[in-house]
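Q: What would this chain look like folded?
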Amino acid sequence: MMNRVEALEKLANEIVDQSVGAALSHQATQLVFGSGDPAAGIMLIGEAPGKKEDETGKPFVGASGRFLDEMLTTAGMRRDEVYITNIVKYRPPENRDPTIEEKKAFWPYLLRELEIVQPKVVITLGRHAGKIFIPDLVISKDHGVSRTVKYNNREWLVIPLYHPAAALYNGSMRQTLIDDFLSASAQIYSDQ
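A: My prediction, written as structure tokens:
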């Protein structure tokens, strides 16, 4: 039987081999697949890679990633203790938002990534990632509020947060994000 690392590598190769998101892949440098602990209790999901992620092939390594690392540190966690990924695995041109079609194309692969990692909690970063799990999400109202989401006989505790980039563009969001993340991590550890 395949271990989780092998299963994730196989899934990443499948995305490339099957030309998922072909239009995006042709203009991107490379696939940006998830990274971190393949058996993590927490999976953080963003919307799509940015410029730095496209260059390195790793999710959340630019300015947003540095703030995410700070949030993890504040909550007493390290990046290698969580699993970080995006819905869309290639950088959209000019860092535009991923389209509905692009998110739909990658959704089955994200579900398989979830099946492999089997996190206890999914933390979505930004409204695009949040809405894929919670279609009626209003991020300004629902950020930090956990919901149990059922899909294909599976259940996940999903906690939508603002995207770390929001704090980079609006300094007043910084504390909101840190507070939400601390609250989410406290909830995660109290449930164990």
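The CA atoms of residues 27 and 65 lie 22 Å apart.
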